Records
---
Amino acid sequence: MGTSTCHVVNFDKLSEVPGMCGAVDGGIIDGYWGYEAGQSGVGDIFAWFADGILGQSTPDRAAAAGQSTHDYLSELAAQQHVGQHGLIALDWWNGNRSVLVDTSLSGVIVGLTLASKPEDIYRALVEATAFGTKVIVESFDGAGLPVTEFIAAGGLIKSPFVMQIYADVLNRPISVIETEQGPALGSAIHAAVAAGIYPDIPSAAAVMGKVRRGPFVPNPKASATYDLLYAEYLRLHDHFGRGENDVLHRLRAIRNAAST
C-alpha cells in the first residue's frame, strides 16, 4: 500500500477471476497459484489533493500545528462520523487497473456543496480507495477464491487513519508487517531459500518475517454505514465504468483533441 496498491493472493487452484492482472503457478510460493490485482492510484491520489490542489493554504496551517498536511487532514477527517461529509468518490485518478482494466477512466467526486471542506474531500478519497479494494476482494470471493485475511505492507500502514478506514470498509481485521523494508526483507527470504539455509519460503518467512496481527479491527457501527456507502459506490462504479455512461471516455477524447 503506497502510491499505488498491489494485491497478491495465494490459492491452491487456478480459477478465472474477472479483472485480475495475472495468475502464475508458484508465482509467490511454490505449490500455490499467485494472483495479482492492483489499484493504479492510491497514495498518489491523496498527495494530488493534499499537496497539489490545496497548495500552500492547508500546509501553512498544518505547519503551525507541527504536522504534515496529510496528518493534519487525517486528524480533522478522523473526527467525523462515517457518511457525515455526504460524498462518494471513484478512485480512478490514474485509471482503473482492477477490475475494469481501463486506463482511460478518471476520477469522480459526487455530493460536493459550498459547505464541503478539505478534510471532507480527503476522507472521501481515502474511502474511495478502500471501496476499490473491496471490489477486488469481492471479485476473488465471487470466483471461488475466498480472501480469508489481510496483511498490509508499504508506506500507508504508517497512517492509522487510513488503515482503520480500510478495516471498517472491508469489515475485516488488518494485520501489518513489522518492517519498513518489506521488499528488501522479501528478497532476503528468497535469497535464504536459494542459499539452502531454509527448505522453502514458508519456513524462511516463519523465522525471518514478523507480522503484527490485527492491530486494525473493524468498528461494527462504522462498517454498517460503510455498507450503505459502498452500495452507492458500486452504482457509480458500474454507471461510469461499465459503459452505462461513457462520459469519462468522451471527456478524455475532447481533452486529447484540444491538447494537440
Note: The longest helix spans residues 118-142.
---
Amino acid sequence: MIGSSYGNLASSGVSAFSFGNALQFDATNDFINRTSSLDLLNGTCTFGFWFKRLGVCNQTIKSNDVSSFYAGTQGSSNGYRFRWTGAELNFTYSPGWGIGNWYCIIFSKTTSNIKIFVNGSEEVNQAYAMSDFGTGRELRLTRTFGSGGFVADQFFIVPSVEITSTEATALYNGGEGAYVSEAIGTPSLLINFNQNSPDGTATDESGNGYDFTLNNFDTSTCWIAH
C-alpha cells in the first residue's frame, strides 16, 4: 500500500514523500487525455504509473490509434500487453492482479528492446523493434474492458532513460513509493493526481505543461485520498 514515508530509502537522507490524492476511474467510460504528447515516448524512455484495481479490468496507456501503441494490464488473464506499431507482446503475470491492492507497473524501452517491471521486479526483458511515432498523437490513460474501475497515481514519462532493476526497485520502495526524479531521473511528464474536486484537469507537475483533461468523470467524487 502506498504510504507517506520513504521506507527503505530513508537512510539516503531523502525527505518524506506522499502521493497525496489519487484519481478514481469508473467501470464504464472515464479517461484522461492530452493531444500531441506521444513524442515523449520516442526513442529510449521509461514510463509507468501506479494503479489499484476495483474490479477485473485493464488499466491502459494508449494512443488514439489502438493499433499503434498500447501498454497496460490484461484483466481476466492476469497478464500484461505491449503493442508498438505492429506485433503485440502478451505476458502472464504469475502472481496475478489482486483487487484492492496497489501495483507499480513500469515500461522501459529502447528502439530494439522492452523491459517491464511490476512492483520493482523485472518481469520482461525482450528484443522488440520500435520506430518513432513522431508528434501529434493523442495519449490516454484509461480503463479498457472488464467489469470494474481502478484508481491511478503517479503517471510519469522519463525520456532518454532505460532503467535498471535497481532503479525500478527504488521507485517501488517496498510499496511506499518514491520520487521519480530520485529513483529514475527527471521526468518530462509527471502527474501525481493531487488535485481536488471539482477540478477537471490532471496537472503535470514536471513544469512542462503536459496537463491531461478529465473526460466523463464525476469531478465531485473522483479525487480521493489514499
Note: Residues 103 and 218 are 24 Å apart (CA to CA).
---
Amino acid sequence: MAELRIQNMKVGDKFVSPSRVLTATHIETFCNISGMLHPLFLSDAYVKNDSYCQSMGIKGTVAPGQLLLGIMLGNLLGAGLISDVIVQLGQNDIKFVAPAYPNDQLRTEVEVTDTRVTKSGDRVVVHYKWQLKNQDDVVVVKGENDCMFKKGS
C-alpha cells in the first residue's frame, strides 16, 4: 500500500498523525539551542511561585510555541504526509491556544482546504488547516499552511 501524500488528497480530506511524546529533554534542548532560556520553559519552581502563571492555571514548565510548530511539522513528515515538500510558502493564523507540558502526547490533525497545480504542471500547491492536539483532545496550537509539493509522488 502506497503512503498517503497530502498533494494527492482532495479538498475536505483529513489526516491524523500518530502521537509523539513531548519530553522535558526536548524542551531543554530546544531552549538551549535557540537561546530561549526563560524560566517558564525550564523551571517548575518558577512556575509554582509566579502569581501570573498561577492565575493563568499553568501547572508546570511549558513548551515554547516555536518548538510546538516544529513538532507539528515533524509529525506530518514522520507520517510521510509531507515528505515530498519542495517549499513551505507560508504559515498563517497561528494561534497558541493552550500550554503543552512535558509528557503530553501530541498529534497533528490536518484538513486540506485548497489545492492547485502550478502552471508548469509538475507541482501542486496545497493549503491546509492544522491543529496540534494533546492526549486529552485539547488543541494546543493551530494554524494554516501553504506548501508546494511534487505532483503525483
Note: DSSP finds five helices and six strands in the chain.
---
Amino acid sequence: MKTGLFVGRFQPFHKGHLEAIKYALKHVDRLIIVIGSAQKSHELNNPFTAGERVEMIWRTLKTLNVLDKVLLIPVPDVENHNLWVPLVSSLVPKYSVVFSNDPLTLELFREAGIETKEVPLKKRSLYMATEVRRRISEGREWEDLVPREVADYLREIKGEERLRNLKSKK
C-alpha cells in the first residue's frame, strides 16, 4: 500500500485544499493529512483550533466517502526546521511521498530523502486561506471559496465572529 502525506494549516480548509487532496488520492492508496501549526489558534492568521480544522476536513471528506483512505493528524511547529520532518515522521505512520506546494515543506522533505510531488494549483488567487480569512473579517462573500460543509461548520462555531473580533484587536 502506497501512503502519501499532505501538509497544510487549513486555516480554514478551502476548495483548493480539497482539490489537492483529490489529486493526492489519485497517486496513493492512503493519505495522511497533517494539520500543521496544531498549537496555534485564536490569532488572525491562525484563527481555528486543531480540533476545529480536523472537523472541517472530516465533514468534507465524509461527503466524498473517502474517510477510509485518509488519516488526519495534528502536528505542532518546532522552532528548528531541521527537527520538523523527524517530528512529523515520529507522529504519523510510514509514508513514501509528500504532496505540497509550499517551497519550505518540499525542501525539508527532499533534504530528508523523501519523494515530493507538487500539487497543481486551481484558481490560486481565490483558493487561499488568506483570502478566505480576509473576506470573512471584512464581512464580504466567502462561502463560495470553501466546501459547503466548512461554511456550515464555521457558522456553527461562530467563526466569522471570531475572525472579525481578531481583526478588530489587531
Note: The mean pLDDT is 94.
